[in-house]
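User: Hi! I'm working on a homework problem where we have to compare a predicted structure to a textbook description. Could you give me the structure for the chain below?
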Amino acid sequence: MNKLLAPSRRGFMIAATAAGAVFGFVTPGAAAEAGFEPTVWYSIDPQGIVTVNVIRAEMGQHVGTAIARIVADELEADWDKVRIVSVDSDPKWGYMVTGGSWSVWQSYPLMSQAGAAGRIALIEAGAKLLGADPKACVARKGMVTAGDKSVSYGDIVAKGGLKAAFTEAELKAMPIKPPSERRLIGRETQARDIPDKTNGKGLYGLDAVVPGMVYARPKIPPTRNESKVVSVDDSAAKAVPGYQRSLTLDDPSGTVPGWVVVVADSFVAADRAAELVKVTWANGDTAKISEADLQAHAAKLIADPKAGAMVLNDAGVDAAFGAAKSTLEATYTTASVLHFQMEPVNALAFEKDGVFEIHTGNQWQSLILPTLAKALGRPEDKIVMRTYLLGGGFGRRLNGDYAVPAALAAKALGKPVKLVFTRADDTLFDSFRSPSIQKVRMAFGDGGAVSAMEHHACAGWPTLVMAPFFMPKGVDGAAYDPFAINGANHWYTVGAHRVRAVSNDLANRAFRPGWLRSVGPGWTNWAVESFMDEAAHAQKADPLAFRLKLLDGAGRNAGAPPSAVGGAKRQAAVLARVAKSAGFGGKLPKDTGIGLATTFGQERDMPTWIACAARVRVDRKSGEVKVESLHLAVDAGAVVHPDGALAQMEGAALWGMSLALFEGATFANGQIAETNLDSYTPLRMADVPELHIDFVESPEPPVGLGEPATTVVGPAIGNAIFAAVGARVRHLPIRPDAVLAALKTT
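Assistant: Happy to help. Predicted structure tokens:
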């Protein structure tokens, strides 16, 4: 097992998921007719309908279709008879989380084994009905056939006599089909959730309604933590028709301190009344904190060699730097980044038959349920979360904090409460990506050979704040947030290697740092790949050749089963492939350049080998950067659902471009300053470049595709700017004034 990641965290996730279920989408809460249920993952009814149960959140990535295809392929089911159901938070489904690009990767072995178990059982039962030897029978498209005789899965189920269930040991022992026998995996098909999303039948959290509910809008305190309500003046709000009251929340969980929610008959009334309600707060010292304060504090922490945790610390790092012929050092920074998902967060809460129901879109039910239990003062088994489509997740809904005030309001009022955040409310309450500072150094020996490298990164730690049980220990025994440092433990062979993760405790206190699509590698790879480019130029080497030489697959970078077979050599292959596709090294117009970047995605034990070549044109007078094209090559093992995979790659690449050039928020006076699209400016359609996505055909197990492309676009653009005009930028987002400033130093 890779020593750079904690076995306990990874083992916990796999074991927890093994106790859970599969995926897809139908009306939330739909149930299948009783029939053959070899595992909790799916069932087959007497009509031959296969119902796959899904624990993963559907937020535009079509994950239900992908996971159902895995089951159906191994089961040899008729795809036209496969249905997908999104399940609630019943404990029988096991651990529920959708993030980290884990869904298909984690589900593939489990769903394949489950499908194989059903196929074998159906063949055995079908053989009896056909009076044939099971070895002479073949399962295809929902039928068992022996010679010229066939029986459908539905008829087999209707006749009965099937093995009721399989043990965990039996499932693990199931033989899985070789890639050559796959009939659904890797084949084109339309995602099952598309029709309902386009015809209005799909239900999002904002669509949730129950009889007798009231609406509420929050009054967001000046600080995320340490605010207390001193007084509430709702005299002006009473003139709003439909206004009911303003409720000061008492939250034993500490999730929403200092909160007031404005309650009304409709959301329009709640919205209008909230603008008129005046709340006086007493605040902690974080009400004065700014982004500059956060970064200054981070810089001090990085300068302290005793701060943080050592993720990797090879022997000989200091000796290599001491004996180096030359060294290179650079500091990289990134700004705060919002999630800004299309659907603002919301939740409907009420008590029914002694059970508290939470209706909302959520990515990590198993994380928020204990918090809800603490807030409501009741056991977890008396709380259930109903599943809805997510109008964008991107990591925001991994943190289900928005469900807590809805539940508290419903408990206090004794009636259903639908809490809806406006865009500004959502922004102010966002658990956004922390700003970061990174210091990277490299030592060179004889002939420019790399002899050592060290990488120090400081940012707010979302896992420390919200899920400390997920934190592994570094080589020095100190716990660290893997989602704030992954990517720094790269696959380049650089001699003695040191990686240190440092928690910005001021950021952790001033706001609630969150997981944003690609998490740590969203900033760590900005530093790694920008620095690799700088190192190549410092050694007067070609940036492509420099990288390929270091991606030699030596030592711990050789890779190992099940998901990292081939190691760094597979990463080198996608890099060489994308460089050729983009014409890297060829003649270009003036002030135009191509930059390269490559990475392995998010985690070393589930690497998605990916590379990007960005072609940009720079206006020397204005500093404006125009991205003309993005070429991406990816080796993600077997691609289960090609259309969904392509959508993931396109969306992630454009998100990465948006983060690189356009998205950057400002934390000022304890809150985010930019609260809507007039001041927070993601990528616009007019700026979308040509996209060229190249999937490497592979027989290896599938890994993740939701995030990896996000991490390579930014550094590729930064490196392309340098190639075009010789200006080196080291901060994200890359603003025109920063390009102009860098041009002055060239």
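For your comparison, note the following. The radius of gyration is 27 Å. The chain has a mean pLDDT of 94. Good luck with the assignment!
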